[in-house]
Amino acid sequence: MPVVTEGSIVAGIDGSRPARTAALWAADDASLRGLPLRLVHVYRVPVAKMSGVLPPEDAIRAGFARQGQEWVSQAREAILSRFPKLVVETAVREWSAVPALIQESTTATMVVLGSRGLGGFTGPLIGSTAVSLARDGHCPIVVARGRRPEDPLPEKGGIVVGTDGSPTSEAALGFGFDEARLRDTELIVVRTWSEVFDHGAIRPHFLDVDAARIESDERKSVEEQVAPWRDKYPEVPVQVVVRRGRPIRTLLEFGTRARLVVVGCRGRGGFEGMLLGSTSQALVAHAECPVAVIRPAEPIETDVDARS
């Protein structure tokens, strides 16, 4: 693996416009944080046994590497034209995308992906890549997207964080507060609730529940969770929203007016695979703004001071 600067923000580059847009988002974040940016292109030489028809494998490999280097160089040039003082590293690697990016995540502050690659794959493919990184990676994953794959990213709006009181949502809150501080905008903390389910478990008497009591309890819970973060980031204006409804639909709605939506990779229900395959995948595939999926450091800590 090429030598890297510890703590870089990594952006995946594949020559597509969404990847270039994501790289500019990553460059902006790196500039705000005072961190270097690392542009990474990963290619894989296809196995094709057609001797005499295709060029030699070494020639094909050299062509892939040359094309990748051209793409990262173009992206670097575009970034430095906007952020001339930013330190920008580049790497062209022969491997599969997911394991390569997981390895990159071991030393990265975050990994940023575009919403669609040159192959034209949207939705499930980018969702599976982000979900794989969220499950097995070692840092936050950001999918930089607008309303449509080719649209510019929103430059206005607050930072929205979905929270359920779990350790991963605690990590999401920390990331969200930091982004709101860096971008000088408000933080909108969203908690949803249901008469039928209580954080993944079916309520014992869901046909006879006190909706007002549930909402009051959830509001108290989220205010208690947010309180230490308010103390740590007194300059960040915070709006707490507690609403009956489904988290996916609610977060997608708030995402239409947001600059960034932040969620944890696993909730209190404990259904890791289900949540990574539904909530996170739905958001990275359909949100109208960038989405950050946060995986807390292990072992999981819940005390705010432990993260300071």
Automatic annotation (TrEMBL):
GO molecular function terms attached to this record: ATP binding
Domain UspA: 9-145, 159-295
Highest taxon listed in the record's lineage: Bacteria
Membrane spanning stretches: none
Keyword Protein biosynthesis: no
Keyword Nucleotide-binding: yes
Gene3D superfamilies hit by this protein: HUPs
Keywords annotated in UniProt: ATP-binding, Nucleotide-binding
Family: Belongs to the universal stress protein A family.
Protein name: Universal stress protein
Organism classification: Bacteria, Bacillati, Actinomycetota, Actinomycetes, Pseudonocardiales
